[in-house]
Specification:
Threonyl-tRNA Synthetase, Chain A, domain 2; single chain; about 35% strand; 2 domains; four-stranded antiparallel sheet; Elongation Factor Tu (Ef-tu), domain 3; about 240 residues
Length: about 240
């Protein structure tokens, strides 16, 4: 199992780690600040720095087997063997942008009162899909409500809920397409003030003020039960 330091502190930008497994193109560590692709959030990129100063660029991060995290590197590059100590550093500006988008999508869940059927974020935009009638989605109204919530500067807190509590409160799961992992006894949660509360394994801001302001740039139908709201963050 890889220790997920980003769950305890989304602002951690680097850590010391030990290689637990490697082969051409992939490296696994005993602990990492690199978030793996999941829940609509892209995996982190960054650099692994060995004790001799040599560097390996991480081009993607994904979930491996048995609760491990895989750092993808150039398949042609020599990889350090198990037991090698190194420094893992994420591309922080990119991560922080994704944290801004991910936190903002939680607010968007609160603005649009409908089941979420999917979602995705990138460094330049993000979207959520809703099971709702198209005529109920008005861009100007959504944008105004979203920015009003951002301006309230609510604290974002990480917590947990037991599997049993979650099973007893299925309404906490807002996204129909992704179910939170069960079987570990508890599920990680994110609470945004009194605005939103739901299971989530992604990385988030500490306060909504860091989001900046948001613009709704497009609303379109992606099928009978998928109406997509796309946002762009401003500074």
């Amino acid at each position: 199992m890889t220790e997920r330091l980003f769950h305890a502190d989304s602002y951690a930008q680097a850590c010391d780690a030990i290689v637990t497994r490697s082969e051409p193109g992939i490296i696994e560590l005993d602990r990492t600040v690199f978030y793996p692709t999941g829940g609509g959030q892209p995996g982190d990129i960054g650099t692994l720095i060995l004790e001799d100063g040599s560097r390996l660029e991480v081009t993607d991060t994904i979930k491996g087997d048995s609760e491990t995290i895989v750092h993808r590197v150039d398949a042609a590059a020599p990889v350090p063997g198990p037991g090698t100590r190194l420094r893992a550093e994420i591309d922080w500006p990119r991560r922080h942008t994704l944290m801004r988008y991910h936190t903002c999508l939680h607010l968007l869940c609160a603005v649009v009162d409908a089941p979420v059927t999917g979602g995705k974020m990138a460094v330049d935009k993000a979207h959520l899909d809703f099971d709702i009638d198209m005529d109920k989605l008005v861009a100007a109204d959504i944008e105004a409500a979203l920015n009003a919530l951002i301006a309230r500067d609510q604290a974002v807190e990480t917590g947990s809920i037991s599997d049993a509590e979650l099973d007893a409160n299925p309404g906490l799961v807002k996204t129909m397409s992704v179910q939170p992992p069960r079987g570990q006894g508890s599920v990680r949660t994110i609470r945004v003030g009194d605005i939103d509360y739901q299971p989530c394994g992604g990385t988030h801001l500490r306060h909504t003020r860091e989001i900046g302001t948001a613009s709704v740039v497009r609303i379109r139908s992606e099928g009978k039960r998928n109406k997509r709201v796309t946002i762009v963050l401003n500074r």
